[in-house]
From TrEMBL:
Name of the gene this protein is made from: LOC108841717
Coiled coil: none
Organism for this UniProt entry: Raphanus sativus
Protein localization: Cell membrane
Entry protein name: Non-specific lipid transfer protein GPI-anchored 8
Signal peptide (from-to): 1-18
Length: 145
């Protein structure tokens, strides 16, 4: 009976963690979607129009959670064929001032830096490690059954 309770608690904890991670991922994707209308202006180098820049400026000035969300998830940016450097260049092209320290706790780099591998590792590595830990705990609990 104790093993069943332990397994139930473990499954509940894993479900709560997975739900929280899904919410963070959905929030980051919502922010990445705001970049889609700007995509033609990112790749051509031509100045983006106000209908592209106004949402970008609003994100930079008022929604740092959104900003850091998509800057710290280069894998999501890759879904729409945009790199972290492209996003940072778009911010600059729109005339928005980006303070690197806002997202520095997750090793976001400036366009001049070449730490892309570190950024990818820190943003997606924690999710992978959490999933691996949860699966390991579930496996160990099944061994005790």
């Amino acid at each position: 009976m104790d093993i069943t309770r332990s397994l139930t608690v473990l499954v509940i904890l894993y479900s709560v963690q997975a739900t929280a991670q899904m919410k963070q991922t959905q929030e980051a994707m919502r922010c990445v979607e705001k970049l889609i209308p700007c995509h033609p202006y990112i790749k051509t180098g031509s100045p983006p129009p106000p209908w592209c820049c106004n949402p970008m400026k609003e994100i930079v000035e008022k929604d740092t959670t959104c900003l850091c969300g998509f800057l710290n998830h280069p894998d999501m940016l890759a879904l729409i064929n945009i790199t972290q450097d492209d996003a940072l260049n778009l911010i600059s092209s729109c005339g928005a001032s980006y303070d690197e320290s806002l997202c520095s706790n997750n090793t976001v780099s400036s366009p001049e830096a070449s730490t892309g591998a570190t950024t990818t590792e820190s943003s997606s590595g924690s999710t992978t490690k959490n999933a691996a830990l949860a699966i390991s705990l579930l496996g160990f609990s099944l061994i005790w059954l």
